[in-house]
Amino acid sequence: MAITAAMVKDLREMTGAGMMDCKKALAETDGDMDKAVEFLREKGLAAAEKKAGRIAAEGICATSISEDGKTAAIVEVNSETDFVAKNETFRAFVTAVVNQAAKTSTTDIDAFLAEKWELDSSKTVKEELSSQIAIIGENMNIRRFQKVVAENGFVESYIHGGGRIGVLVETECAVYNETAREAAKNVAMQIAAIYPKYVQRSEIPQDYIEHEREILKAQAMNENTGKPENIIEKMIEGRLNKELKEICLVDQVYVKDGDLTVQKYLDAVSKELGTPIAIKSFVRFETGEGLAKKEENFADEVAKQMAGN
């Protein structure tokens, strides 16, 4: 398979590895991007977690929470340009979408799009989306949504960067007051900033752990340390534990106080509340996650528009 400059650029953005290393990795793996990432990791040339993809598509994430904090929803609605993403008409539409998502009984995006539009039952959600596209004059897409219902606690949210990142946090807590909500919002901010994959270690699939162990073993073998095998095994386990702590929310260093983990912060809040507060689940959406936007030269784009007038 021919290795293109664009492929090298994409791999470099995903891993942070050097250009020549990326080119070699792609050549060694016949252009398979995932295998190339693993090749670089085994050589110790890439970070433990590859990026989810180039964050390129525009739009916003939004959240909605009921007054009692029991029911919440989060949506991502995409637009072609950042200009439209800041448009008040677009934002009002996204607010209506997330409010409807908080009331829906479906979990499927196609079924959601086929529902009656709550603000005008003569239309479906998809038909209202088409109407908004005609009004705003730019292609838009309701990409995804998720609804969260708290059974033994409440849900809190956090929006970062005007909608670039949205987070919902489901708690287990017997009280719903300002202190508890502030703690949950602080944890939501942590999730937005550090992006854990799991709440705690017990949630990590065993096959994921074994896969990472094999990667770290290959790294250690490539280092040619000459250390005894038992020392290398301890080194591998140490690196693995460090990596797992970084992807588990409660084990992460708490961003607002580097002396605490998130779990120790929650323990302190539990003591203040007089009742335990724990994180049951979370949802994190980042606008354009995994999507690539067509890149065009701005001057060429303006010239095209002028030629069309």
Polypeptide structure, described:
This protein is α+β, with helices and mostly antiparallel strands and 309 residues long. It has helices at 5-15, 19-28, 33-42, 82-85, 88-101, 109-114, 125-136, 178-194, 206-223, 229-247, 262-273, 298-308, and strands at residues 58-65, 71-79, 116-117, 120-124, 140-149, 155-160, 165-173, 277-286. Among the domains are: 1-51, Helicase, Ruva Protein, domain 3 (Orthogonal Bundle); 58-168 and 281-286, 2-Layer Sandwich (Tetrahydropterin Synthase, Chain A). It has a three-stranded antiparallel beta sheet. A three-stranded antiparallel beta sheet has the order 6-7-8, covered by helices on one side. Strands 3-4 form a two-stranded antiparallel sheet. Helix 1 (5-15) crosses helix 2 and helix 1 (5-15) packs across helix 3. The radius of gyration is 23 Å and the shape is flat. Residues 47-56 and 294-298 have low confidence and may be disordered.
